[in-house]
Each structure stands twice: as structure tokens, then as C-alpha cells.
Amino acid sequence: MYTKYTTQLGIRNSVCRKIFLIMRLTCFILFASLMQVAAAGFAQKISLSEKNTPLVKLFANIKVQTGVDFVADGDILKAARPVNIRVVNMELKDVLEILFKDQPLAYEIQDKIVVVSRKEPSLLDRISAVFTNIDVNGLVVNETGEPMPGASVSVQGEGKLYITDAKGTFQLLDVSGKETIITRFIGYKPDTTVLKSKTSVVIALKPLAAQLSTVTVVNTGYQNLNKERATGSFGVITAKELAQFPTISVLERIQGMVPGVNVSTKTTAGQSRNGTINIRGISTIVGQYTQVSVEPLLVIDGFPSQISIARGALDFLNPDDIQQITFLKDAAAASIWGIQAANGVIVVTTKKGKQNAAPTFNFSTTYSTSAKPGTKYGPRLSVPEYIDLEKDMINANLLTDPVPSSYLPANNSQAQAIIFRNKRGEISEAQMNADLAALGQNDNRGQISKYLLQRPVTKQYNLSVSGGGVNSSYYMSGYYYTDDRVYKSNRNKGYSFNLGTSSGLFKNRITINTSLNYANTTDKTNPTSAQAMSMSTGGLRPYDILKNPDGSTKYYDVFMVPERARAFEAQGYLPFRYSPIDELNYNNTVNTGNNLGLILDVNGKITPWLSLSVSGNLARNFNERENYQEPDSYASRIMINRATSVNTAGKLVYGIPMGGKLALNNSLARSYNIRGQLNVNKNWNDKHELNAVLGNEIREVFNKTSGENRYGYNKEINSFSTVNPTVRYTDIYGQRPNIGSTTGAVVEKTTRALSYYANAAYTYDKKYTISGSARFDDFNLLGVERRKRAIPLWSGGVSWNLKQESFLKDVEWLSTLSGRFTYGFTGNAPQGYAPVTVIDLLGTDFYSGLPYANINRPARENLAWEKTRMLNYGLEFSLFNGRISGTLEYYKKHTTDIFYTLPINATYGFSETLFNAARLDGQGVDLGLSFALVRSNAVTWNNTINLSYNTNIIHDERFKLPIGNEDVTQGQIIHDGYPTDFLFSYKFKGLDAKGETLIEDAKEPGKIYTTADYPYYDIKAYSGRTASPWFGAYFTNVTYKHFDLGLQFQYQLGGVFRKPSINMLTDFVSSAGDLAKRWKNPGDELTTTVPGINTDYNLGYYYGTSVERYSNSDLLVRSRSNVKLQQVRLAYSVPQQVVAKFGIKALSLSAVCRNLGMIWAANKEKIDPDYLYSESSTYQLAPVRTYSFQINLSL
Amino acid sequence: MNIVKIFLIAILTFALASCRKYVENVPVQGQRVLVYTQDYRLLINSQTSAEFGSGNPAILGCDDIDLQDPNIQDQISTDNSNLAMYTWDKPFYLEKVDDFDWNAMYKAMYTYNTVITGVPDSKGGSPAERNEIYAEALVQRAFTYFTLVNSYAKQYDAGTANTDLGVPLLLEAKLFVPLPRATVAKVYAQVLKDLEIAIPLISVTRENAVRPSRAAAYALLAKVHLNMRNFEAARQAAEQSLALSGQLYDYNQSADPLNAPFPTLLENKQILLRKIPRTTYSALQLSDDLLNLLGTKDLRYVLFTRFGDQFYPSFNGRGFWAGGGSDPACVGLTVNETWLIRAECLARAGQRNEAVQMLNDLRKFRFTPGDYVALTATSDQQALQMVIDERRREFFGTGLRWFDQKRLNKEPSLAKTVTRTFKNVTYTLAPNSNGYVFPFSSIIVNQNPELIQNPK
Fold first, then answer.
1. What is the pTM of this model?
2. How far is CA A623 from the centre of its chain?
3. Each residue of A167-176: pLDDT tens digit?
4. What distance in Å separates the CA atoms of residue A924 and residue A891, rounded to the nearest whole number?
5. What does the pLDDT look like over A619-656, one tens digit per residue?
6. Could you tell me how many CB contacts below 8 A there are between chain A and chain B?
7. Which residues of A are less than 8 Å from B310 in CB distance?
8. Domain count, chain B
9. Least enclosed by CB within 10 Å: which of A476, A727, A860, B213?
10. Within a domain: B429
11. Do B157 and B37 belong together in one domain?
12. Residues B195 and B344 in one domain
């Protein structure tokens, strides 16, 4: 844009342009020689006398005196310095010489026009500049030292603008070293730094006064984005926030931290840790045999984790190494990950060293101990009541005497044995009553707590060193933890090492980052304690004590009745006895996991705004599971006894060699990724900003599993016996089985993916951003054509920074306000099904010895992709200088063509196959709100509320199914018009005169069914959802000087659960407390709702129905709503001036109490809906109250 | 710098353009698309589903079994299906309950049809290999259709076979085609056709009891003709089979089970094609009728029966002890069955001496030398009755008797009305009654109404 500065005489613009074109061409041709132009031809004399006058003003004066016009590019004159001049009657040529002497400008006289241009240095200048000029590498960081990508850097007096890259760095080439640079970032104070010939500078920006420091950088795994200018929905947890939780489990640390992210840390009894995580509810359905993943993709330092979260991927991470966790919640944020992102993405970035920093040592240790675990789980029958129930069941002919049976049944109920002894006439009625009364004195709860459970104790140690030189940085850490779990003989421990370096080469034009980490976890599990509390083999009835009053161990016969067991032992069989206390020492399963990861990333700058990075990773995970049944263990003894027979000579014949058994299972996963990516980071005039990545990558994951069993194993002397797995032997029942395969199949699988991706965001005037993202994934899907295998997935979004608009700029109380809208879709390919027949190779058939293969699924044509479309509206605001800030988001998810296995006529060869079936409509709200109630120098009081709402509903005519007895073990069952987590209940209508449950038809009020009626369908009514639609957490934090007190509450609102009640009654009688109130005599139906057992054996069928209808009735439905106080934390950081004397940078101490339990629950029994007692071995005790102490030291 | 830029961009462009093969030529361990002859070999070797012959309904329904003990009666009452099968009641399967026997056989059919359609054009094998696999699949399909049509349709009768409804005849592995029931004649014709094609192509030597050989194909052919009452053709086929593989197992070798256990179906040379029942009821109490016929000296009594306390539920009486405890009962094709088919055809053809000689040759292997007594027949009818009695002794517990009852009902002289008393109620199975035709599960009838349900 050229402007004429002396308009009086005027030259038309077009002429100016033409002149310039000519001039530039000339300049180009005469580049080397004609840089300093001499003026000639004018004879007018000029007189001037000015002090500190702008150059432009002098041009006007000269024009008046000589009639000469001046033209120049408007911008360049801004760089002109004011002039002092005093000349009398001087030639124009000489005057110009003086005027331009110290200016960064050149001029040229053409006829009566002086053209002013930027001064081009002469060749000589250039040569000399090479020796004196320097290249400057800069880094922009925020107040916590985090790099800030997207900051704008300008050199004063020069029009150029630089934008920092993803690592927060920028580069100034060929500068004199005297420049002043100005760095700007929204929400931060502009910084002015004089270079002073330094070749590297670190610019630390400070947030605008009194504004809460908000996280501004989000990482998608492919790029760092400035959150202000991103359209997608991101949730972020920082290292500082994670450090507030003393748990080993990362999942427990992030519970409740991000709206829309639902974490359940409930595990099963056989596992030490992990749990489930879902982002914004579900977007697909796991039905029978549909292989879709419902877990978010986990990305660690830019690369997807090869093991899933459910399989413990997070356990291999040192929680203290985590720099930040970013949740990619909507399609715009996640779709760059393509097909893998259907359930959202979790991006973990680990800590890195800082350049130009002295080494910092960080040491932290945490010790946690817990309250003593109890065994009071809901209302139970008292021991005499329990014995009474067993007696009633025998009298009702619901149980039969196991002793006369020749089939060797296992029923080790002491009470039943006494009663049957009386029935057989071996003891008198009085003796029986006395024996039962004596048995009723025992209650094993105290003993279970004492001998089978323990206080969970965890210890964590972490040491890290980081620092950096001029062009390099490093970070190293080591971590060790142990975790003794609530069940005795269950212990988990692990360690990890991490090393990361970063080096700059060729004046930092090329950066090389490497990272190496190794982690090991060892998980020892012993099933005894959990079994003892269950109703399976090894389960204890309430009077089954563990130790006799004299202190000796009490033994039980759980394999067969004692009479039979003793007879076998007399023949020379091994002891059949069982004691949970003994078994705690035996039959441990040890799972050892090793995880190794290597990352190499080379980033080269092509131009200041364009860079190319090539990166790759290599990961290996090897896992060994070892189960050793010691020769003395119950499992080994029974295994051998079971395989032993007596020959005609009366000698014992062993089918399985004496000794123990060792079962080994190995799995190996290895993967690599190679990625090439172009990054664009361009800013024009501070008005237009373009941020883009374009790349492609390849990925291979290889999995292999194998296993073997060894018999006659003795670990102490490392001996085992070779067995022939096909030879048949006679077992204790007279059957002739064989040992069976001692080696598991070797299963291998290679998965490959080829992907292209692009993501671009353009921001205009810092107000309007438009973004788009697309990805194309191609997989090795057997037998599927490319066009069906790979479809592009995309998303787009806009955001509007309203605060930058003129009408809001002056609204003082409104600090920020922006709105976002995104739309996009992700999908799932119909994996596992192909339009052609696929066979599974299954190795050698054990029986026939022939290699074989099966068709596990029929060929399926015309299966479409499952597609999830997602809409997201977001609003972000902060008020009163950030005292109140928040994010409010509303999203809708529509998944169509959901893969669902539906029945087909089995005559075709398969009884079900995959269809594109239902539609799932989900929606939800994520609300995050922070407010500082007090904010003074000494005291601050901050509060954060996270609240999420999520719901879904199924639509499909094919699922307008009658509500029957859903068998949930068959996979997820869905119903048209209902959410996926429905609960249906019988409508309980009291008991009839026989004490049997009556129910009402769900659709016809007043229509009552007795247990003799067997209506199959539509006899259950909807009770609600089994997940709470509303959930979240509230944090409140008070800081006073060096003390910090924080409380975390977690809540769930809405949803229902069914109070656990009577299990089906077998010889292992349920001890549910409800049974105390069971119907016993006619007339009781007026006072109780619990069905009776007083039923004739032939009606046992109805009896089961009666109990089943009661335990699944609406009478037992309760609200899930509850509030839990999750954690109270008090921290003290020792004042700087105190610790400095000891050469310590920082020292802090904290004490944390966790799992303080429910402070409010909607259900009247105060049952925790997350830990419902079930009489099965999968029951997990609710977490006990934990006390942790933590020391954090920096040197 | 420009050269570097161009170079880098060129690399990237190259990388973007050249990768497609990366995902296409990956060997997927453990899975394959059917291409090579070897793939079909693996499929036809599979015993999953292919090992199941007839099951519980035939075993429980036949007159070898009589569940007199109250313990068993109580136990079996808890299972609707077993109860219905035992009392010749219908339906067997309540609403929403699958007939897994049917499902398993048609699942195997999908594999056979896949092999039959695909193996002739497969790559990498010799014509002989392809033919052998093709023929094995045809024999397997023939066996399965033969079992299906005999179970779910009326006994073959030349007079009515053209109108009697059989079973859906699927000859291609394809979903969602209509499932009308082919006539009994059509199913039998298909079985004969498959065998006719298979016999010249199939391996002559018996490799293994799970792979059909020519002897097995002839044995099946003999069985099919026997059921069609083509006794001459049945005899010829039986002789062809016995000529190729005619070795009987001498049960004296397993008289002391602890030292020499009864061979498994794989080890037993008598087994031409191994098929087992998909499920068997756990306490098969044998009828007095059968036990009287068997006597206590018979090695088959010693090996294959046990006192009731060895079963669950335990009972008073003797129960069927499958395979001498080594293996399930065989419901496939055996030398001894072919042997007895030939004997029956000889007896029917008036060659009673030859027929009785065959029986005696067999019985020498079924008694200890001290207990063996030779049989003699004075009339052809007596010889025929002896063969049929020997069939009962030889095959009890397998359900083969059910099909014999069904077959022999076509001859008034051999037809039998069976009655049984269960919980004080007497049930009767009249010759040629609907009780001999198994019902379909309501699931498959509801899904495809063109599949017409059998009458009650």
C-alpha cells in the first residue's frame, strides 16, 4: 500500500505503481552496483531549519520550496527517525543526503519525484553483517515455565512478526543483537526484551494482573494448540492437580476432575487395580461378538498406547512424570485420531527438562495406611437365624442328605450335617438341638477380618532430575511403589525409569527429542479371602470359624462329605482338608508386566513458519502370568486325589504325578509407529493466523500369547514330571479322562494401519476461528475391499471470541467470553465380518491330531460402517478479572448403524450374525465452574464445581421387544425407546396365602399373577437407569499463607439400583438379611413382603420363581443419589527463606485422608450403590478409609 | 536451503503416495480367506459341530431306556426338553429355547457346503487332493442330511416319500434364502447323489476315524439303502465297505478295563466315521427288556453297563456306561453296524446260514471263550429276528435303536408298540405315530414360516 505524502501536485496512483514496478526491476538487474543511488538534475536551492521534526513534515516543506513530490510505502516511514537539520540554499541532492543519512531508508530521484524505499544493505554491508550479526533462539514460557506455542514475537522497528511453534520456541535469523523484541499473548502482559547480543533468550510471560492462571495449551497428540483459538472441546488436568491425590492409581487421581469424564475405579476381586473410564457416555454398544472398543484411545507422548486402559496401560506410568492429561471430548478435538477416536481420546504428556536451567532434583514419598477393614456388608441373618433357615429348607425337602449318595457330593454345611444325622437316626432330637445351639454361638466375621483381611498399605517413592544447557535439556526419573491390598496375600508393586532428552542442532533449526522408559509391575493375587466371603467353593457359612477356640486351625471338607473323605484318606489318598488360613500361603498368581517404550522425534524448521517433523516410536510389552499350586496346596491335593484310583490289588494308581502344578502364560505385544508431519504456523500482520498440520503415519501392532502347564512341579527343587497328555487314567469317579493339553495354543496377530491426516485452524483478527480436521485410516481387514475398509472421517468447527468485539471490549467486569460450535463424525468398521468366508486357523486338534480351521462367522455382505455424529456447543467465560470462570457445553451424539448381533435362522448355519441395527441418541451437558470467594495476599479460597449430565436412548423398530427375562451375561440387551442401562422390575403385589410372591402385569393394572402363572413377556416395568445421569465433583481449597486445605466431594444424582436380596437358594444357603422376615405361617403375608420357603418339593419350581420374582421386584429398587466425601488434604509448604538456608529449593508436607464415605444417600438403608454386596466371588469390598502422608523436596 | 526444502517435500509426497501395500499384504496370523486347497483341508478336518450325530431325543426315546427309578424321574422332571423327549410329548423346546442338535448339524452343513462349492477351484493343490477333500465333504453332508431327515421327518416310504416333508435342503453356504422343506424323497436322492459322486473320488485307505474313507462312504450307502428297503443294494454296499475295512474289535482284549481300557473312538478300528451325540442324559437306566436280551455274561454288559450308584442321580438298576468310560458312544458309521446290515440283508434274502454265521463271527468277539455259545436259526424269520436282537445288544445307549424301531415299524411283523410308565402315568408310542418325528424348535419356525412344523 503506497501512499503519496505530498498530495498537492498529485500523481495518480496507477502511475506510482508503474514507476515502482520499473524501479524494482531496475533494482533487481543492477543489484550489486547500484544500491546507493545518486541524484542529479535539480538545481533548486533549499533552506531548512528544523529540530526533532518528523521526516514527513520536512518532505512537505521541501515540496513547497522545490515542487518535488515524495512517494513511499506508508509503513516504512513509521520507522523513520525525527531529524535535526539546518541548511541554507543547499542543493536538493545534498539536502536529501543529510536527511537520509541516519535513516533506515533509501531514496531515488526520478524526474520530479523522490521515491523513498527501505534501505537495502550493500554487498559490503552484507559481508560485514555475516561477521557481526547473530541468530537468536528464543523460548516463550508462561508463569509456571510451560512453553507457550502461538505467542507472537515482533522486533521493534521492524514489521516482521514471529509466532512461537508447538514447543514455544522462535528464531530470529541474522539480527544485529541490538534489537528490542516484544512478545504478546492473550491474557498475558506484553514483554519487552532487549537482545543485548544474546543468542538465546527465555521470555517468561506473566498473566495479566489478578487473572486466574488458566491452562492455555492443549495437546492433541499431534500438535499443541492454544486453547483460546481451538474450536474443539478439551478437558485438561495438570501435574499440579494430579499431585494433590496420593493414590498410585492414575484413574483414582483423575476421578471427578473433568466434566464429562466418568471414571469408575471399581475392580474385581482378582485384579489389583484399574477400572473403566468413559468420555461423554457411550457411543456404541457392546453386544454379543461385536468387537467394537468402548474405551477411549490412550495416547502417551504422541503415540497410542498398545495396551488398553482396561489391561492396565496407566499402571505403567509414573504418576509424577505426567505433565498434563488432555481429554479430547468432541469430534473436532478427537477426529484427528480417526477411527480410534470414536470413544474420545486421552492424551498424556510427560515431563520434559527445561533449557538453560540448572539441575533440579525432586524427591517425593508417600506413605498410606488405612482403617481396619470390616466385613459388615449390609443386613445379614444372625447365625441362629441362618441355622434355622437351613433347618426349614431341609424340612421343606429343598435339600437332600448328601451322605447316602454314592456320587460324592460336596456339601460341607455343618448345620445341615447335624440335622441329617438326626434324620438318619444317629443322634437324638435333643442332641441335635444342643449341637445346633453350640454351632449358633460361632460368628466368623471377626475372624475373617482378623485372619483374611488386612489394612491396605501403600508406599511410593519418586526421584527425578531435570535441567538443560543452551541447546539441550534432559529429564530423568525413577519410581517405586508397593501396595498391600485389603485381601491378605494380595500385593502389588512396581517400578519405572524414564529418560527424556532434547537437543538442538544447526542453530536449533533441527531439534531431536528422545524418550526412553521402562516400567515393571508385579501383581500377586490370592483368591482365598474373596472366596471365603463368597458362596462358591471355599466359601464360609456364617458359623464356619477359621480357628478353634484352642488356637488350632479349623479344617473343612469342601470337596466331599467328611464321611467319604475320611474313607478315601484311609485308602492312602492325600488329605482332603481345606483351611482358608493355610491357603493364603498357596496357589498365588503372579502377574509380571514389563513395558518398554522408545520415542525419537526429529523436527526441522524449513522456514520460520513451516517445519517438518519425522517421529517414531517402538514399544514392547511382555507379560508373564504364573500360577503355582504348591504340592501342599488344596488345589494340588484335590487335583491328584481326583485323578487317583485303586486297582484290584488295592494299590493307588495316580493319573497325575504327585507334586504341584505350574501354569505359565506369556504374552507379548510389540508395536511401532512412523510418522511424517508438516506443521504450519503462520501469522500475517497479526490479523490472520493459520495453524495446520498435515501428515501420514504407519502403525503395526503385533500380539502373541502362549502358555503351558507343568505337573509334578516342585519349585523348591525346580523339578517337574513329564506327562503324556493323551493317556487316559481312571479317576476317583471311575471315569477315564486324560490330562489334556499341557501347552496352550500360540496365538499371534498383526494389525497394521496406514493413515493420512490433516488439521487446520484459521483465526481472523483474534476473533473468529474456523477449523477443520480430516483423517483417512486404512487397516488390514481380511477380505474387505479398500473402499469398504477405509472411509475418511472429518470434523469442522467455529469459535468466536466475543470479548475482542468492540461492543464488549469496554465491559470491565467481563474478562473473557467466547463461544464454540463443532460438528463431526467418527466411526467403526465392521471388524470381524467380511463379505467373503474367513477361516480361523486353530492349530492341531487335540483329539484327532489333525490341523484344522473353523468358520466362526458367516460371510456378510453389505455391512455399513457404524457412524457417530457429534455436535458440540460450548461457551467459555470469566468475570471480574477471572474471579468467576466457567465452561458450559452441550453436546449431542447420534450413532447410527450400530453393530448388533441379531438372531437369524440357525438353519443357515449360524444362529446370529452382525447387522447394522439400532440408532443411539445421546446427549449431555458438561459444566465446569470456578469461583474465588476470597482472594487476598494471605488467604485465598477457590472453589470448583464439575457437573455432568449424560443420557442415551435406543431407537430401532427391531428392538421393540417384549420385556422378558433379560440374560445380561449374553451381552448387552437393548430395547427400543429405553436407555442402554435400563432396569426392569417385577411389580410386586404382596404375598399370597402360601407365602409366594404375587406380581402385577406391567401393562394391565390389576392383572395379578401367582407363581403358578408363567407369563413370559411384558411382566416387568421400567424402574430407571442403572447409571446416574448426573455426576460430578466439588473441590474447595483454602490457602492461608503456607497452608493449603482442600476438600473433594463426589456426587451422583439420579439413577436406580436394586438392593441385593436373596440369591437362589442351593445347599449354600443365602444369608441375606431379608430372609429373617420370610413368610413362615399363613397370615404372615399380612405383615411381611419376603416370600417363604414352606413349599412342597414338587412345587420347587414355583418356589424358585417366587424368590426370583421377589429379588427382581420394584420393592427393592432404590435411588442411586449420593454424595461422598472423597478426600481431605492439608498441605504445608515450608517458607522459601527457611529452606533456602539448607540449600533447598522447596519443601512441602501434606496429610491426606481419603474414602471418608457417603455423607448423604437417598436410599434409606444407606447402601453405597457402587459397592453392592453380592454373594459371589466377584464381590469387592468398598474402599476403606485411607490416611496418607507425603513429603515433597526440591533441590 | 531450497534444495533441502524440495528434498523434504519430495520425501513427504513419496511417503504419502506409496503406502497402500503396507496394509494389504499382511499375513493375518490365525485367519485366512479361503484360497488354497490346504485351507479347505483344514476346514474339513474340523471336528467342531461336525462330530455330532443324533442326540438325546433318539437316545431317550428308544425302548433300550426305561427310567423307572423315582430319583431319575424327579431329576428329569426338572428339564422340560428331556421330559418331553422321554414321554414322546411335543414340543421338545419351550418358546425361545433352541434346538442345538439341529443348529449344530446345520452349522456343520455351512462348512460342508463352503468346501463343496469352493474346493474344486482352489489353488495350490493337486486334482487328487481337491477331489479327496470334495468327496469327504460330500460324504459328511450326506451323513448329516441322512441323520436330519430320519430325525425330523417320517420314515422313508417309497409310496409317500414324494409328498412327505423332509428338511430344508441347503446346498450352498448362503444366508437369508427361503427354507422350504424338501420332500423325504428329494433329501434321500440328494444323499445318494452325493455318495455316488464321492465314492470314486474319496481316499480308499482309512486315515483316521474323523476323516471319511471309501469304506465309510459305502457303509453310509448301505445304511441309506437299508432305510429305503433296497436290501440288495444295501448288501452290496455293505460288502464293498467290509472288503475295504472289515476288521471287528475283539472285546476280550478289553475284558480287564484297568489293564487294557476299551479303546477310544479314534483308536478303535471298528469306527469308520466318528460321530458322537451332542448331549446325553446323565443317568440312562436300561430297560429290563434290553437287560434280559443282553444277559450278564455278555462282554458288552460287562463293559458298557454299570450299577446305578455310579451315575448322577444315582438309582437302583443298571445304566449305560458309554465307551467303557473312555469316550462317548459312537453314533457314526462303524464296521459292526455294516456287518449287521449285511447279515440282515442276507437273512432277508433267505441266506439264513450265512447271516447266522456272520452273527456268530461277531459274537465270538463279544463273549469270553468260556461263555461263547453259537447261535443257530431254524427259519429266515428267526434269523432276521436274531440280527435285530443283535443290533440291540450291539448298539444300546447310542439311540440307533430308535431309528431301527422307526424303520421296522414299516413291517407289521416287526412293528412294536412301546409303553413306559412315568410318575404313575403310562405313555404309549404306537408304530408309525407322529411321536417318531421330532418337532422343530419354535424359534426357527417363527423366523421362517415356510418351514412347516411337524404335527404333534
1. 0.78
2. 21
3. 788 888 777 7
4. 5
5. 999 999 999 999 999 999 999 999 998 887 888 989 99
6. 199
7. 406, 733-734
8. 2
9. A727
10. no
11. yes
12. no
